[in-house]
Amino acid sequence: MEISTNENCDENMETLLNEEFIIAMNKMNQNRKKLPEDEYIELINKLYEMNQKHFTNSSDSIKNYKNNLEELFRLRYSILQDELIEKEHVIASLTNKIGSLKEQISLYREIQVELRRLADEARKFGLKEDSSYILDLSNLWHEYEQYIFALQNPVISENVE
User: Fold this and answer.
1) pTM (two decimals)
2) Which regions in the chain score pLDDT beneath 50?
3) What is the dihedral of CA 152, 112, 116, 31, to 10 degrees?
């Protein structure tokens, strides 16, 4: 009979905690539409705290922490995606309306501000610039910048296409 050492117990506990953490994230994501946005964000914040508390002890823990952190930010981003869809519908409805150019640009700028806020928040929690999450946000920010450029410079945009 083999007796577990404290180290083995710690590793087993960490594995169980990480599995439970992932299950909690998945369940939360599946039920996202059923929860009010403020409750959903509060649950994400609790998972941030749990992640910080339990997964920063060893190099394996830190790897789990970083993976979990990126997944948590993806959950936060899913909220933004709904807002982006709504704003893009508004922008589409403004197309071809007289005087709507400034409104369209303003909505694109609002989206960019939110993308930057999410990226800054992720950096504050330790995600690096080369994380897929921050790269995705950056790419989206630049995509919206191209839309703005196209609206501000329609002649140049037509010649580029």
Assistant:
1) 0.59
2) 1-9, 157
3) -160
